[in-house]
Amino acid sequence: MKIDFEHSMAAHCENGATVNLLNHYGKKLSEPMIFGMGSGLFFIHFTFIKMHGLPVTAFRPMPGLIFKRVNKALGVKVTTKKFKGNPEKSMQALDELLTKGIPVGLVVGVFHLTYFPEPYRFHFNGHNIIIIGKEGDNYIVSDPTMEELVTISSEDLKRVRYAKGTYEPNGKMYYINYAPDVYPDLKESVIKSLKKTCRDMLDIPGWIAGAKGIQFLSKKIRKYPQKLTKRKASLYLGQIVRMQEEIGTGGAGFRFLFSAYLQEAGDLLNHPELRKYAQEMTAIGDKWRDFASQAARICKGRPKEGETYDSVADLLFEIGNEEFVFFKKLKKEIKNW
Amino acid sequence: MKKDEVPQDDANMLQGKTRELQYALDKEGNYTAVKSVGWQAKNEIMQNAWDDIHEQVAAAKAAVLNGEKSTLYYHMVRKLMDVHILSGYSKIWQWRIKRHLQPKHFAKLSDKILNKYVAALDMPSIAALNDIEYED
Description:
The structure holds 2 protein chains of 2 kinds. Chain A is of the alpha+beta class. Chain A contains 11 helices and 8 strands. In chain A, strands 3-8-4-5-6-7 form a 6-stranded antiparallel β-sheet, sandwiched between helices. In chain A, strands 1-2 form a two-stranded antiparallel ribbon. Chain A is globular, with a radius of gyration of 21 Å. By secondary structure, chain B is mostly helical. Chain B has helices at residues 40-65, 71-78, 83-90, 94-100, 103-106, 111-120, 126-130; strands at 20-25, 31-36. Chain B has a two-stranded antiparallel sheet. In chain B, helix 1 (40-65) runs antiparallel to helix 2. Chains A and B meet through helix 8, helix 9 and helix 10 of A and strand 1, strand 2, helix 1 and helix 3 of B.
């Protein structure tokens, strides 16, 4: 049994799951559009929350938020369920929905995800996949980070649905239970999402989030060589680059995805000036890529002349400043839209 | 980043199983999605993280051979787990696991407990759990 489902790939799993699910219910939107409408651009650096012993840097809001915001804007209703300590029931619930022809989103851990490339299999429990059918003992999976459909045995699927460690998914599943016949016009929610992103990058109290959070991280990096051993310093710096580039950000910690959104939003709203903003954000994104290249060379212990923890900290401080100026300007521009 | 600047540096991190989507500018200056097999900077950072894990595994092995830790400790580290994650999979309390990481306590464990660890670590048998040379 297999639901007729169009699989497309995305940079990020949550964006991709949202794109594919909504498309199944008659609303075709691009990944940048989903990402932007969910106000997906964000920055926060925690020194006190650690994963695998390394401080957490996030370039996106909490998992699930983008999906929630987009559905709200479109008037789509979603059912979410968890089955704590009851794997049998969770698999049964999945099968029942599939027989009704409903594609089901699941949150899973990647460590035991059999079809996943091994170098990426850590104990990370926030991955999103969509189950679109079952043949014999195997489930058919639309995983937004894979180019084609893949399969997984029911035993293996059960295990990843009950992955252990931080943020245990406990069999979490979600599906669309209502989608409107006619979707609302997007203009209003696009403007709203842009304003929200400006607020997220400028106005969150404290010093760890938004553009000033980037500068806070820059100050921390500057102190790594004094505060940490050489090995630890390189792992701390490396972890920032991994969050920026590796976890499906579409490059430069979602900055390119956001630029793509600005272009689409500009066309949709008939505000060509947004294309200029897209250009500026692209230039900032390119600087994030420079930061990653330099950081990688430092981590590998073969920096080019003049490249030190201080110089990458300088670059990051500059990026923080440019984003601050960028969002100030954008905020003013769209204030009366 | 322009479309033709999207790096294609393959270090077999994706093992040919998939490619990653990057967003870049086409000739007209419009954003488009481009598939990439990898980027050197990222590959190196990733390799760095794995090198660190391999060092930890080697250190764990040495600790077992020195008699400081039980083989359970080695296999836990090898599976990138800590006591918290192992407790989740085995349903054994963390303070008990910490005791079982010591050789003298581990040696006294019943087959029932050992089998819980075997299942949690996705291993074939108790013999494998006792074997410091065992690898999947």
